[in-house]
């Protein structure tokens, strides 16, 4: 039986190009398949947090909506490689794909995406923890790729970063948080090849040291947003390099960096006047002297966190 919503959309809006169903718990495969069969001009669809959606919806969209370029499936945990493979083969002009927390996706789906979608710009693969370097490396064949998010993928290594860096020279946003095998050498390769980086997140990559931050400072002067949450090997030396070479820094998260001191705050205050967000919680060596200096110099600050510091 066709759901009332699916029938209404299909009959009432045949020229629909964009629709957002995020967090609509009653949306199911029947509604999406009905929509897909009638709305052939669809270019963008957001099905995030639609827990009833399965491969059937994505496959129907792929077969009926060849103009699709933006597909958001975050937290649709029933989606598998089968759906992504068919989507990639039929919607070759795909530019944006969000698979956050689609934990059944493996290298097979990502390889098909890389092979068939050369215009890909944005790929969110966070918490797709079955993905390895074998899946990420082929994404380097998508030269327009500028936005890559990967998180909690324990099999991802420096090889994946190096492959992306070598061929995806347009990269501006990269997230490899909680990828425990990422080290300085991977970030150095990225920094040297991708000077346009403005947003990086390597939270919980605990092998990273000052060497990585020095390379980023030397090669990526346009950095605006940096997150190194709980990368506890980083010291003042690394942060000084970023502060002195990246004057546009506006958002920094150095939570739980146990070795940094007021010296890091002094350097940020003197070199980064546009700072808006500063998170230094659990940095026990920071005192009220550093905090006061930072707040005096950085007048644009709107969010600060010095919880559990020596303030």
How would you characterize the overall build of this protein?
This protein has one domain: Leucine-rich repeat, LRR (right-handed beta-alpha superhelix), CATH 3.80.10. Strands 1-2-3-4-5-6-7-8-9-10-11-12 form a 12-stranded parallel beta sheet, with no helix packed on it. It has helices spanning 4-12, 29-38, 55-64, 81-90, 107-116, 133-136, 158-167, 184-193, 210-219, 236-245, 262-271, 288-297, and strands at residues 18-20, 44-46, 70-72, 96-98, 122-124, 147-151, 173-177, 199-201, 225-227, 251-253, 277-279, 303-305. It is built from 12 helices and 12 strands.
Features:
alpha/beta; Leucine-rich repeat, LRR (right-handed beta-alpha superhelix); 311 residues
Helices and strands, with pairings:
Elements: H1 4-12, E1 18-20, H2 29-38, E2 44-46, H3 55-64, E3 70-72, H4 81-90, E4 96-98, H5 107-116, E5 122-124, H6 133-136, E6 147-151, H7 158-167, E7 173-177, H8 184-193, E8 199-201, H9 210-219, E9 225-227, H10 236-245, E10 251-253, H11 262-271, E11 277-279, H12 288-297, E12 303-305
Parallel strand pairs: 1-2, 2-3, 3-4, 4-5, 5-6, 6-7, 7-8, 8-9, 9-10, 10-11, 11-12
């Amino acid at each position: 039986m066709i759901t009332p919503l699916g029938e209404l959309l299909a009959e009432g809006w045949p020229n629909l190009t964009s629709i957002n169903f995020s967090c609509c718990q009653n949306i199911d495969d029947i509604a999406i398949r009905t929509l897909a069969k009638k709305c052939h001009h669809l270019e963008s669809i957001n099905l995030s947090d639609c827990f009833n959606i399965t491969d059937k919806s994505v496959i129907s969209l792929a077969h009926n909506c060849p103009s699709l370029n933006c597909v958001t499936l975050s937290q649709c945990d029933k989606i598998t490689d089968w759906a992504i493979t068919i989507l990639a083969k039929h919607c070759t002009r795909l530019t944006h794909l969000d698979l956050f927390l689609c934990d059944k996706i493996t290298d097979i789906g990502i390889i098909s995406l890389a092979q068939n979608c050369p215009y890909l710009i944005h790929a969110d693969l966070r918490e797709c923890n079955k993905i390895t370097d074998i899946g990420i490396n082929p994404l380097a064949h998508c030269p327009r790729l500028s936005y890559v998010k990967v998180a909690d993928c324990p099999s991802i290594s420096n090889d994946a970063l190096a492959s992306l860096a070598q061929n995806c020279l347009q990269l501006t946003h990269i997230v490899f948080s909680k990828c425990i095998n990422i080290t300085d050498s991977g970030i150095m390769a990225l920094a040297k090849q991708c000077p346009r980086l403005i947003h990086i997140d390597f939270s919980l990559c605990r092998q990273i040291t000052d060497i990585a931050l020095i390379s980023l400072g030397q090669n990526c002067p346009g950095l605006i947003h940096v997150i190194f949450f709980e990368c506890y090997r980083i010291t003042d030396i690394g942060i000084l390099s970023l502060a002195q070479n990246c004057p546009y820094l506006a958002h920094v998260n150095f939570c739980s960096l146990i070795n940094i001191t007021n010296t890091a705050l002094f350097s940020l205050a003197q070199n980064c006047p546009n700072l808006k967000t500063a998170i230094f919680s659990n940095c026990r060596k920071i005192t009220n002297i550093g905090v006061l200096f930072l707040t005096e110099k950085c007048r644009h600050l709107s969010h600060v966190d010095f919880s559990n510091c020596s303030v």
